[in-house]
Amino acid sequence: MSSVAAEPPHEQQAPGGKRIMSPAPTDAAEYKPPDGGWGWMVVVGAHISIGFAYSTPKALSIFFKDIQEDLGASYSEIAWISSIMLAVMYAGGPVSSVLVKRFGSRPIVIVGGLMCGVAMVTASFGRSIVYLYLSIGIIGGCGLCFNLNASLTIISKYFLTKRPLANGLAMAGSPVFLCFLAPLNQFLLGDFGWRGSLLILGGMMLNCCVAGALMRPVTPPRNSSAAAAQKIMEKTTQHNTSKKGRCLSNARKFLDLSFFKDRGFIIYLIGNTLFIFGAYAPIVFLSAYAVSQGVEEYSAAYLLSIMGFVDMFVRPGTGLIANSKWIRPRIQYFFGFAMIFNGACHLLCPMMKSYAFLVGYAVFFGVGFGMVFALIFECLMDLMGNQRFPSAVGLVTIIECFPMLLGPPTAGLLVDIFQDYKYLFFMCGAVIMSGGLFLIIMNIYHYHMLEKEKAEHNGAPSQDAENQDGVSLSEAQRESTEPETTQTNGDPQDPSPDDTEPDVTDHF
Amino acid sequence: MENMPASWKLLLMLVLTASCGRVHAETLDPSPKPPASAPALSANMRKVAVLQSQNSTQNVQLLNPLNLSLECSLTADHDKLPNISAFWSQDGREIPDSRLSATLEDQQYHVRRLFYIAGEEMLGRYSCVFENGVRADFILATPPFGEVRDKPVVSYGGDFVVLPCKMEEAKPKPLSWRWFRGNKTHKEQISEQPQRFQIHSEERKSKLKVINLTHEDAGVYYCGAVYAIGTTMNPVELKVITYQEPLKPFIGILIEVVLLVAVIFLCEKRRSKKNTSKGNEENPDQNNINLQEEEKGAEEGSSTRQRRV
């Protein structure tokens, strides 16, 4: 009979020091992620999927000038296409999470790929700007949203010990695909015009279906009694909830507000929001700033390519570093450090007047940006654990929608008011740096509180279900036969006992 | 008179103005610094090139017919000859009767010439060439376009296309816009025909909309910004292709995607069949049945076990 694994949610994420390892028994239904093998093919699939998701809205801007002329639209009307696509991609997070939990990653990525392909192909026949908003913006955005969410989820299912590296490699898809799509789009534009290029781009996005096919669902080894008990528990919980209760739990499936009770989650959310607000504006305005400093236009555009190129290598590198023995337990601090580094880069940018210095800035910007983005979802996985990650990431992306859409226009407003780019960089640098500092300080506080709670918790003998609402209860019932006193993490962070070091219990 | 020392010229002018009793600002050369050009012929514009040992080139933007005074000042080298000869040329051909001898004043040799630029045929490259080979070029032209499109505009048969043309804010406004079609030597103007061409022009922008494209419409189109003195041309190439052209790569990619997906799924089915047959041999009990169910479940794409009833 399964026992209730009653870990309070805020105790599930304490990699900072709670390395008192449970002897993760492999015959428990709580499966041990494969951490390799087919997992690396899944990383390739996620790489492709995430690559298209992040680079398509940017790469499409190459077509905008031609579309603008043909359809007779103004520049801001055209720019809305990208904004709508990004907004839908982020806002659709909760819907995507629910679908991924219900159907698994593979069908969702395949459907996402099909939607993207259909979106681009229909857009190639467009006669009006609203048509493009609907096809590229909404349908395309939805497709990308499915891709993003499902890819991240399946990485969390396949990897645990090597998860930071897998995340770094998968997130590297974004700069790789941008580097590859941007010149390709230019070439296609010259040969086929924007309509033909959209058609071919749609075909290429169908490759997301191939990525989806690679995402074979994990088959955890189970013993029959556990599985049977699971099903019985499922049935009983389903029968017991009344109609209203079921309605509420369905609504709660979309936006699991219980997350807001989780201190670690709130800290992550605030830090992330600050970062996203300041992250994209420097990219948008970098070439304009360089031109204003006297750099010629072609070299200014080159700066962004340099940044993207550096980003390509920094992301897997950061994943590798984050995977190491010393950093992994302190990954939240590493994340905060990466943000501070990024913010410092921006604060120093206005001092860069010559082209050589601007190239240096672009390199360091690429490093900082890559570090943050390699860790951004890894830290969330670390906080939330496998089971809660899909819903958490949906919630995070829909909240991140707002700073992402507000950031660049606010920065543009600053440029318009002060007629000087340096205030933009000061603002972005300050906001990002404060996000990083917030994360580090609050995480120190958070782990301190966790240790205190754990000490109190160990004092009380009764193991109480402190987190119980319907959804997470069924997820927490993972037939853990592990003793709760040593169960400090939702996931067995590191199954191999070799890595448990006695001095790591203190998270400094 | 042209070779008078500067101080004498200034004295003469002062005497003239004093005798007139008032300063006729208009008759004097509008450019403020000496040496001024001869007051008798008033130049509307004056361009100076200062040379030392290297050639120089200047672009001169002209909008209207005017009198243009071009001057070249060559800094004397250590030879310090009293006289040096020079001539003027237009588009590489020496202008007849333009050869003159410049005297050394203030370490420099000055030559200047007044040109009356009446129309587009008089635009071109004007040069002053000194005896020692040093020259200054003045390229007279109407305001050029800033961005020249190097890639062709591509559109499809039966579709329409809009060819844009823009003169930036920094440059002077053209009087009107015209569109031409042809090649470098022979251009014919496009007139508005309701079924084929529509021209929509604003102050700084002009668009040519070509409707119902056919393959004969492909070629180079020139957008002309018309000024009083001439027209600046901006070439735009138009390519017309059929719908089949991008369709071929698209179908190619589609086939590749379908093949890859099929291969992946087939490999997976084969591997799971192997696993289940192995499982049959090893565990002939309930575990086995569960594994098989779960394998099938995996292929159905559900990864959340607990929800599957």
Q: Describe it for me?
A:
The complex is a heterodimer of chains A (508) and B (309). Chain A is mainly α and 508 residues long. Chain A has a single domain (27-218, 253-496), classed as MFS general substrate transporter like domains (Growth Hormone, Chain: A, Up-down Bundle). Chain A has 17 helices and no strands. Chain A has helices at 39-59, 64-71, 75-91, 93-103, 105-123, 129-158, 163-171, 173-205, 207-214, 224-240, 243-254, 263-292, 297-323, 331-348, 355-418, 422-459, 470-476. In chain A, helix 1 (39-59) packs across helix 8 (173-205) and helix 12 (263-292) packs antiparallel against helix 16 (422-459). Chain B is an alpha+beta fold and 309 residues long. Among the domains of chain B are: 43-141, Sandwich (Immunoglobulin-like), CATH 2.60.40; 153-243, Immunoglobulins (Immunoglobulin-like). Chain B is built from 3 helices and 17 strands. Chain B has helices at 6-20, 244-282, 286-300; strands at 45-51, 56-61, 66-75, 83-90, 93-94, 100-105, 108-117, 124-130, 135-141, 153-156, 161-166, 176-182, 187-189, 197-201, 205-210, 219-226, 231-241. In chain B, the strands form 3 sheets. In chain B, strands 1, 2, 3, 4, 5, 6, 7, 8 and 9 form a 9-stranded mixed sheet that branches. In chain B, strand 12 and strand 13 (187-189) form a beta hairpin. In chain B, helix 2 (244-282) packs antiparallel against helix 3 (286-300). The longest helix of chain B has 39 residues, at 244-282. Chain B starts with 5 loop residues before the first helix and ends in a 9-residue tail after the last helix. In chain B, 19% of the residues are buried. Chains A and B meet through helix 2, helix 4, helix 5, helix 8 and helix 9 of A and strand 10, strand 11, helix 2 and helix 3 of B.
